[in-house]
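Feature request, filed as a ticket because there's no other form

It would be nice if the structure record came with a short human-readable summary line next to the tokens. Right now we just get the raw output. Example of a typical job, pasted below so the devs can see what we mean:
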Amino acid sequence: MKLRPGEKAILPTWFKAGIVFALLTTLYVSWAHRLDNREAVTQTQASHHGAIVRQTELRFIDVAEGTVSIVNAATDQEIMRLHTGEDGFMRSVMRGMARERKARGLGPEVPFQLTLWEDGLVSLIDPATSRRVELSAFGVDNVAAFTRLLPADGVASAPAS
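Raw output as currently delivered:
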């Protein structure tokens, strides 16, 4: 839009450019902080619970009629399927974590980490949101539901660097 002689712009061009620059800088800093935070969360978790005894990376995939496929992210092989009405605790934990990702506009690209720590506790960690569920707090039966997904020995699929 052209200004008539004697009219001044409501916001000068230099001011508009400054707003755009400030917005882009804020977005970049936020993105960089998020990447740094993911690494810090993993390091902090290890210090609280000791070393990792067993760990695997998992993807939870919705398939037909409410069934959830649990896939080993490293091998892309299905570990098990949860049918409607089965393993209610596992389904609710997985759905809660998936719902948080969706609320933040994140997709399923980053796998979840299921970890058995040196101190015996079991955690399900979402590196994408930094959310962590201490499964051990929900009782032996609920922990057993998840630990059957862990590899028999050692770290099956350590987080990719």
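Something like this underneath would help us a lot:
Residues 13-49 form the longest helix (37 residues).
The chain has three helices and six strands.
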